Amino acid sequence: MKPLINRPFIRFLVFFAGYILYPVSFLVPRRKKKWAFGSFRNAFNDNAKYLFIYAAENNPNAEVVWISADKNTVQRIRDLGLKSYFIGSFRGVYHALTSRYWFFNAYTTDILFFASGGAVCTNLWHGLPLKRIEFNIKGGSLSARYVKKTFGERFFHPEAYRRPDYVLSTTDFVSARFAEAFRVGTSQCLNIAYPRNTILLAGKQERISFIKKYEQEETLRIISDSHGYENVYIYMPTWRESQADIFSQNMDINRLNELMRRKNSLLLLKPHANTKVDINLAECPNVLLLNNKVDIYTILPYTDVLITDYSSVLYDYILMDDKDVILYLYDYDEYANNRDFNFPFLENVAGRDVYDFAGLIDVMESGDYKMDENKREEIISKFWGVRKSDSVCKTILEAVM
Protein backbone atom coordinates (compact mmCIF):
# COMPACT_ATOMS: atom_id res chain seq x y z
CA MET A 1 0.00 0.00 0.00
CA LYS A 2 1.30 3.45 -0.92
CA PRO A 3 2.11 5.63 2.14
CA LEU A 4 -0.62 8.18 2.83
CA ILE A 5 1.64 11.19 2.23
CA ASN A 6 2.55 9.87 -1.24
CA ARG A 7 -1.05 9.72 -2.43
CA PRO A 8 -1.43 12.67 -4.84
CA PHE A 9 -4.50 14.29 -3.24
CA ILE A 10 -3.23 13.88 0.33
CA ARG A 11 0.17 15.21 -0.71
CA PHE A 12 -1.50 18.21 -2.32
CA LEU A 13 -3.44 18.94 0.90
CA VAL A 14 -0.29 18.69 3.02
CA PHE A 15 1.52 21.16 0.79
CA PHE A 16 -1.51 23.42 0.65
CA ALA A 17 -1.51 23.55 4.45
CA GLY A 18 2.21 24.26 4.33
CA TYR A 19 1.64 27.28 2.12
CA ILE A 20 -0.72 28.65 4.75
CA LEU A 21 1.99 28.24 7.40
CA TYR A 22 4.76 29.79 5.29
CA PRO A 23 3.68 33.48 5.48
CA VAL A 24 2.99 33.03 9.19
CA SER A 25 6.59 31.90 9.65
CA PHE A 26 7.78 35.39 8.67
CA LEU A 27 5.78 36.90 11.53
CA VAL A 28 6.87 34.63 14.39
CA PRO A 29 9.56 36.22 16.62
CA ARG A 30 12.82 34.32 16.35
CA ARG A 31 15.40 33.95 19.09
CA LYS A 32 18.98 34.86 18.18
CA LYS A 33 20.27 32.31 20.66
CA LYS A 34 18.31 29.42 19.14
CA TRP A 35 19.92 27.55 16.26
CA ALA A 36 18.29 24.74 14.26
CA PHE A 37 20.12 22.02 12.34
CA GLY A 38 19.02 19.26 9.96
CA SER A 39 20.15 16.99 7.15
CA PHE A 40 18.88 15.34 3.98
CA ARG A 41 16.95 12.07 4.25
CA ASN A 42 16.45 12.91 7.94
CA ALA A 43 19.82 11.43 8.79
CA PHE A 44 22.36 12.64 11.34
CA ASN A 45 25.37 13.23 9.15
CA ASP A 46 27.69 15.39 7.10
CA ASN A 47 28.62 19.02 7.69
CA ALA A 48 25.51 19.81 9.71
CA LYS A 49 26.23 17.00 12.16
CA TYR A 50 29.76 18.16 12.95
CA LEU A 51 28.76 21.82 13.19
CA PHE A 52 25.81 20.90 15.43
CA ILE A 53 27.98 18.91 17.85
CA TYR A 54 30.51 21.74 18.03
CA ALA A 55 27.79 24.34 18.57
CA ALA A 56 26.11 22.28 21.31
CA GLU A 57 29.41 21.60 23.11
CA ASN A 58 30.81 25.12 22.93
CA ASN A 59 27.83 27.47 23.23
CA PRO A 60 26.12 26.87 26.60
CA ASN A 61 24.13 30.11 26.30
CA ALA A 62 22.52 29.06 23.02
CA GLU A 63 19.72 26.55 22.46
CA VAL A 64 21.07 24.23 19.79
CA VAL A 65 18.50 21.82 18.34
CA TRP A 66 18.45 19.13 15.68
CA ILE A 67 15.17 18.69 13.82
CA SER A 68 14.26 15.58 11.85
CA ALA A 69 11.25 13.79 10.39
CA ASP A 70 12.73 10.46 11.48
CA LYS A 71 11.93 9.48 15.06
CA ASN A 72 14.85 7.06 15.22
CA THR A 73 17.25 9.88 14.35
CA VAL A 74 15.65 12.08 17.00
CA GLN A 75 16.01 9.37 19.64
CA ARG A 76 19.61 8.61 18.68
CA ILE A 77 20.60 12.26 19.13
CA ARG A 78 18.76 12.47 22.45
CA ASP A 79 20.61 9.37 23.61
CA LEU A 80 23.82 11.36 23.02
CA GLY A 81 22.56 13.96 25.48
CA LEU A 82 21.78 16.53 22.76
CA LYS A 83 18.51 18.25 21.92
CA SER A 84 16.47 16.91 19.03
CA TYR A 85 12.82 17.17 18.01
CA PHE A 86 10.48 15.38 15.63
CA ILE A 87 9.24 17.84 13.02
CA GLY A 88 5.82 16.18 13.07
CA SER A 89 5.33 17.27 16.68
CA PHE A 90 4.20 20.61 18.08
CA ARG A 91 7.60 21.16 19.71
CA GLY A 92 9.39 20.36 16.47
CA VAL A 93 7.42 22.97 14.52
CA TYR A 94 7.75 25.42 17.40
CA HIS A 95 11.55 25.16 17.49
CA ALA A 96 11.76 25.44 13.70
CA LEU A 97 9.61 28.59 13.78
CA THR A 98 11.49 30.26 16.62
CA SER A 99 15.11 29.48 15.66
CA ARG A 100 16.85 32.51 14.22
CA TYR A 101 19.65 30.58 12.50
CA TRP A 102 19.21 27.48 10.35
CA PHE A 103 22.04 25.20 9.19
CA PHE A 104 21.42 22.33 6.77
CA ASN A 105 23.22 20.06 4.31
CA ALA A 106 21.07 20.54 1.22
CA TYR A 107 17.74 22.40 1.46
CA THR A 108 15.44 24.00 4.00
CA THR A 109 13.41 20.77 3.77
CA ASP A 110 16.20 19.24 5.86
CA ILE A 111 14.34 21.05 8.64
CA LEU A 112 10.94 22.31 7.36
CA PHE A 113 10.70 24.69 4.41
CA PHE A 114 7.31 26.08 5.42
CA ALA A 115 8.74 27.26 8.74
CA SER A 116 11.79 28.95 7.21
CA GLY A 117 10.41 32.47 6.66
CA GLY A 118 12.49 34.97 8.60
CA ALA A 119 15.24 32.49 9.47
CA VAL A 120 18.84 33.16 8.45
CA CYS A 121 19.54 30.07 6.35
CA THR A 122 23.02 28.68 5.78
CA ASN A 123 23.42 25.91 3.23
CA LEU A 124 26.41 23.81 4.26
CA TRP A 125 26.02 21.66 1.13
CA HIS A 126 27.59 18.22 0.90
CA GLY A 127 30.38 18.35 -1.63
CA LEU A 128 32.46 20.57 -3.85
CA PRO A 129 30.84 21.41 -7.21
CA LEU A 130 32.88 19.19 -9.52
CA LYS A 131 29.66 18.64 -11.49
CA ARG A 132 27.06 21.21 -12.44
CA ILE A 133 24.38 21.37 -9.76
CA GLU A 134 21.08 23.13 -9.09
CA PHE A 135 20.48 26.19 -11.32
CA ASN A 136 23.79 25.60 -13.06
CA ILE A 137 22.65 22.38 -14.75
CA LYS A 138 21.69 22.36 -18.42
CA GLY A 139 19.61 19.19 -18.70
CA GLY A 140 19.01 15.74 -17.26
CA SER A 141 16.36 14.39 -14.92
CA LEU A 142 16.21 17.62 -12.87
CA SER A 143 15.81 19.98 -15.81
CA ALA A 144 12.07 20.39 -15.10
CA ARG A 145 13.00 21.85 -11.73
CA TYR A 146 16.02 23.95 -12.53
CA VAL A 147 15.79 24.72 -16.25
CA LYS A 148 12.08 24.67 -17.15
CA LYS A 149 10.92 25.52 -13.62
CA THR A 150 7.51 23.94 -14.15
CA PHE A 151 4.52 24.70 -11.93
CA GLY A 152 4.52 21.20 -10.47
CA GLU A 153 8.17 21.46 -9.49
CA ARG A 154 7.65 24.90 -7.99
CA PHE A 155 4.64 23.73 -6.00
CA PHE A 156 6.08 20.48 -4.63
CA HIS A 157 9.71 21.58 -4.34
CA PRO A 158 9.62 25.19 -3.13
CA GLU A 159 12.82 24.58 -1.17
CA ALA A 160 14.77 24.53 -4.44
CA TYR A 161 13.74 28.12 -5.17
CA ARG A 162 14.39 29.48 -1.68
CA ARG A 163 17.77 31.20 -1.97
CA PRO A 164 20.00 30.67 1.07
CA ASP A 165 21.40 33.63 2.95
CA TYR A 166 24.80 31.94 3.00
CA VAL A 167 26.46 29.01 1.26
CA LEU A 168 29.45 27.33 2.86
CA SER A 169 32.34 27.35 0.41
CA THR A 170 36.12 27.06 0.43
CA THR A 171 37.91 29.26 -2.15
CA ASP A 172 37.05 31.96 -4.69
CA PHE A 173 37.35 29.31 -7.42
CA VAL A 174 34.68 27.17 -5.75
CA SER A 175 32.49 30.10 -4.72
CA ALA A 176 32.07 31.25 -8.31
CA ARG A 177 30.36 27.92 -9.09
CA PHE A 178 28.25 27.90 -5.95
CA ALA A 179 27.07 31.46 -6.62
CA GLU A 180 25.76 30.39 -10.03
CA ALA A 181 24.20 27.20 -8.72
CA PHE A 182 22.31 28.82 -5.83
CA ARG A 183 21.70 32.22 -7.45
CA VAL A 184 23.47 34.16 -4.74
CA GLY A 185 26.30 36.69 -4.71
CA THR A 186 29.85 35.52 -4.17
CA SER A 187 29.87 37.64 -0.99
CA GLN A 188 27.27 35.20 0.40
CA CYS A 189 29.64 32.28 -0.15
CA LEU A 190 31.74 31.72 2.97
CA ASN A 191 35.27 30.68 2.04
CA ILE A 192 36.08 28.64 5.13
CA ALA A 193 36.14 24.81 5.07
CA TYR A 194 33.90 21.80 5.73
CA PRO A 195 33.14 20.78 9.34
CA ARG A 196 33.01 17.10 8.35
CA ASN A 197 36.72 17.21 7.48
CA THR A 198 37.73 18.06 11.04
CA ILE A 199 37.49 14.35 11.87
CA LEU A 200 39.81 13.51 8.96
CA LEU A 201 42.48 15.97 10.14
CA ALA A 202 42.14 15.35 13.86
CA GLY A 203 44.85 13.66 15.89
CA LYS A 204 44.43 9.92 16.48
CA GLN A 205 43.42 10.23 20.12
CA GLU A 206 41.05 13.13 19.49
CA ARG A 207 39.41 11.21 16.64
CA ILE A 208 38.89 7.98 18.54
CA SER A 209 37.52 9.89 21.54
CA PHE A 210 34.97 11.55 19.27
CA ILE A 211 34.02 8.23 17.71
CA LYS A 212 33.54 6.54 21.07
CA LYS A 213 31.39 9.41 22.28
CA TYR A 214 29.19 10.05 19.25
CA GLU A 215 29.25 7.07 16.90
CA GLN A 216 27.43 3.78 16.88
CA GLU A 217 29.03 0.47 17.84
CA GLU A 218 29.08 -0.59 14.19
CA THR A 219 31.61 2.13 13.41
CA LEU A 220 33.99 0.90 16.10
CA ARG A 221 33.54 -2.65 14.84
CA ILE A 222 34.46 -1.67 11.26
CA ILE A 223 37.54 0.19 12.48
CA SER A 224 38.57 -2.78 14.61
CA ASP A 225 38.00 -5.24 11.74
CA SER A 226 40.21 -3.16 9.42
CA HIS A 227 43.25 -3.57 11.65
CA GLY A 228 45.76 -6.23 10.65
CA TYR A 229 45.40 -5.79 6.89
CA GLU A 230 48.25 -4.62 4.66
CA ASN A 231 45.91 -2.20 2.89
CA VAL A 232 42.31 -1.12 3.28
CA TYR A 233 40.65 0.04 0.05
CA ILE A 234 37.31 1.81 -0.08
CA TYR A 235 35.19 2.10 -3.21
CA MET A 236 32.86 5.11 -3.23
CA PRO A 237 31.24 5.66 -6.65
CA THR A 238 29.01 8.63 -7.31
CA TRP A 239 25.29 8.48 -8.04
CA ARG A 240 24.21 7.83 -11.61
CA GLU A 241 20.83 8.74 -13.03
CA SER A 242 20.54 5.20 -14.44
CA GLN A 243 20.46 3.92 -10.83
CA ALA A 244 22.49 0.95 -12.04
CA ASP A 245 23.77 -1.58 -9.52
CA ILE A 246 27.37 -0.71 -10.32
CA PHE A 247 28.85 -3.19 -7.87
CA SER A 248 27.56 -6.18 -9.82
CA GLN A 249 27.53 -4.74 -13.35
CA ASN A 250 30.98 -3.20 -13.53
CA MET A 251 33.00 -5.26 -11.11
CA ASP A 252 33.82 -8.91 -10.52
CA ILE A 253 33.44 -8.99 -6.75
CA ASN A 254 34.71 -12.56 -6.46
CA ARG A 255 37.88 -11.67 -8.34
CA LEU A 256 38.40 -8.62 -6.14
CA ASN A 257 37.90 -10.74 -3.03
CA GLU A 258 40.54 -13.20 -4.22
CA LEU A 259 42.95 -10.34 -4.91
CA MET A 260 42.30 -8.92 -1.43
CA ARG A 261 42.85 -12.35 0.13
CA ARG A 262 46.20 -12.83 -1.61
CA LYS A 263 47.38 -9.34 -0.66
CA ASN A 264 46.04 -9.57 2.92
CA SER A 265 43.87 -6.55 2.18
CA LEU A 266 40.28 -5.46 2.74
CA LEU A 267 37.88 -3.78 0.31
CA LEU A 268 35.06 -1.66 1.73
CA LEU A 269 32.10 -0.86 -0.53
CA LYS A 270 30.22 2.36 0.22
CA PRO A 271 27.33 2.92 -2.21
CA HIS A 272 25.73 6.29 -2.78
CA ALA A 273 22.49 6.51 -0.82
CA ASN A 274 20.45 6.46 -4.06
CA THR A 275 22.27 3.55 -5.68
CA LYS A 276 20.69 0.11 -5.99
CA VAL A 277 22.70 -2.65 -4.36
CA ASP A 278 22.10 -6.33 -5.05
CA ILE A 279 25.21 -8.39 -4.34
CA ASN A 280 25.93 -11.49 -2.31
CA LEU A 281 29.11 -11.26 -0.23
CA ALA A 282 28.58 -14.46 1.73
CA GLU A 283 31.67 -16.03 0.18
CA CYS A 284 33.73 -12.83 0.06
CA PRO A 285 35.23 -12.35 3.54
CA ASN A 286 37.68 -9.70 2.29
CA VAL A 287 34.93 -7.47 0.91
CA LEU A 288 32.61 -5.57 3.25
CA LEU A 289 29.48 -3.63 2.28
CA LEU A 290 29.00 -0.62 4.54
CA ASN A 291 25.62 0.37 5.89
CA ASN A 292 24.50 3.77 4.60
CA LYS A 293 23.81 4.82 8.19
CA VAL A 294 27.50 4.58 9.05
CA ASP A 295 29.26 7.96 9.03
CA ILE A 296 31.87 7.39 6.35
CA TYR A 297 34.02 10.28 7.56
CA THR A 298 34.81 8.38 10.74
CA ILE A 299 35.94 5.40 8.62
CA LEU A 300 38.04 7.14 5.94
CA PRO A 301 41.08 7.83 8.17
CA TYR A 302 41.43 4.06 8.69
CA THR A 303 41.65 3.33 4.95
CA ASP A 304 44.68 3.57 2.67
CA VAL A 305 43.31 3.89 -0.86
CA LEU A 306 40.13 5.51 -2.17
CA ILE A 307 38.62 4.12 -5.37
CA THR A 308 36.12 6.56 -6.81
CA ASP A 309 35.04 8.21 -10.04
CA TYR A 310 33.31 11.60 -10.24
CA SER A 311 32.52 11.96 -6.54
CA SER A 312 33.76 15.03 -4.71
CA VAL A 313 34.76 12.79 -1.79
CA LEU A 314 38.08 12.76 -3.65
CA TYR A 315 38.76 16.32 -2.49
CA ASP A 316 38.10 15.44 1.15
CA TYR A 317 40.25 12.32 0.98
CA ILE A 318 43.38 13.95 -0.40
CA LEU A 319 43.47 16.32 2.58
CA MET A 320 44.89 13.38 4.55
CA ASP A 321 48.59 12.67 4.16
CA ASP A 322 49.83 9.34 2.76
CA LYS A 323 46.50 8.46 1.16
CA ASP A 324 46.24 7.28 -2.44
CA VAL A 325 43.44 7.47 -4.99
CA ILE A 326 42.40 5.32 -7.95
CA LEU A 327 39.92 6.92 -10.35
CA TYR A 328 37.83 4.11 -11.86
CA LEU A 329 36.36 5.84 -14.92
CA TYR A 330 34.83 2.93 -16.82
CA ASP A 331 32.01 5.09 -18.22
CA TYR A 332 33.84 8.39 -18.60
CA ASP A 333 32.55 9.33 -22.08
CA GLU A 334 28.95 8.40 -21.29
CA TYR A 335 28.98 10.16 -17.94
CA ALA A 336 30.59 13.31 -19.32
CA ASN A 337 27.94 13.49 -22.05
CA ASN A 338 25.05 13.06 -19.61
CA ARG A 339 26.32 15.14 -16.69
CA ASP A 340 28.25 18.34 -17.35
CA PHE A 341 31.34 19.12 -15.32
CA ASN A 342 31.94 22.63 -14.02
CA PHE A 343 35.51 22.50 -15.29
CA PRO A 344 37.76 20.06 -17.20
CA PHE A 345 37.62 16.89 -15.14
CA LEU A 346 41.05 15.34 -15.61
CA GLU A 347 42.78 18.67 -15.02
CA ASN A 348 41.07 19.09 -11.66
CA VAL A 349 41.48 15.72 -9.97
CA ALA A 350 44.38 13.85 -8.42
CA GLY A 351 44.94 10.10 -8.56
CA ARG A 352 45.71 7.18 -10.88
CA ASP A 353 43.04 6.91 -13.58
CA VAL A 354 41.93 3.58 -15.07
CA TYR A 355 39.18 3.01 -17.62
CA ASP A 356 38.15 -0.64 -17.31
CA PHE A 357 38.02 -3.41 -14.75
CA ALA A 358 41.17 -5.08 -16.09
CA GLY A 359 43.04 -1.83 -15.55
CA LEU A 360 41.67 -1.57 -12.02
CA ILE A 361 42.86 -5.07 -11.18
CA ASP A 362 46.30 -4.36 -12.67
CA VAL A 363 46.99 -1.25 -10.58
CA MET A 364 45.63 -2.82 -7.40
CA GLU A 365 47.77 -5.90 -8.04
CA SER A 366 50.93 -3.92 -8.75
CA GLY A 367 50.39 -1.10 -6.27
CA ASP A 368 51.10 1.36 -9.07
CA TYR A 369 48.85 4.12 -7.77
CA LYS A 370 51.05 6.29 -5.56
CA MET A 371 49.79 9.85 -5.38
CA ASP A 372 51.66 12.58 -7.23
CA GLU A 373 52.31 14.87 -4.25
CA ASN A 374 52.75 17.97 -6.40
CA LYS A 375 49.35 17.31 -7.98
CA ARG A 376 47.80 16.73 -4.56
CA GLU A 377 49.04 20.10 -3.31
CA GLU A 378 47.93 21.84 -6.50
CA ILE A 379 44.37 20.51 -6.14
CA ILE A 380 44.23 21.26 -2.41
CA SER A 381 45.32 24.83 -3.04
CA LYS A 382 42.70 25.29 -5.76
CA PHE A 383 39.75 23.72 -3.96
CA TRP A 384 40.56 24.21 -0.27
CA GLY A 385 43.10 27.00 -0.11
CA VAL A 386 44.98 25.31 2.74
CA ARG A 387 44.40 22.28 4.93
CA LYS A 388 42.15 23.51 7.74
CA SER A 389 40.91 21.80 10.86
CA ASP A 390 41.15 24.06 13.91
CA SER A 391 38.43 26.66 14.46
CA VAL A 392 36.48 25.80 11.29
CA CYS A 393 33.16 25.47 13.12
CA LYS A 394 33.79 28.54 15.24
CA THR A 395 34.60 30.58 12.14
CA ILE A 396 31.40 29.49 10.39
CA LEU A 397 29.20 30.47 13.34
CA GLU A 398 30.93 33.82 13.71
CA ALA A 399 30.59 34.57 9.98
CA VAL A 400 26.84 33.88 9.99
CA MET A 401 26.00 35.60 13.25
Give an overview of the whole structure.
The protein has 401 residues and is an alpha/beta fold. The chain folds into two domains: 201 residues, 3-Layer(aba) Sandwich (Rossmann fold), CATH 3.40.50; 169 residues, Rossmann fold, CATH 3.40.50. The strands form two sheets. Strands 3-2-1-4-5-6-7 form a seven-stranded parallel beta sheet, sandwiched between helices. Strands 10-9-8-11-12-13 form a six-stranded parallel beta sheet. It is globular.
How is this fold's topology laid out?
Layout: H1 8-25, E1 31-38, H2 46-58, E2 63-68, H3 71-79, E3 83-86, H4 90-98, E4 99-104, E5 120-123, H5 143-146, H6 151-156, E6 166-169, H7 172-182, E7 189-191, H8 198-201, H9 204-214, H10 217-226, E8 231-236, H11 246-249, H12 253-262, E9 265-269, E10 287-289, E11 305-308, H13 313-317, E12 324-328, H14 332-338, E13 352-354, H15 357-366, H16 373-383, H17 392-400
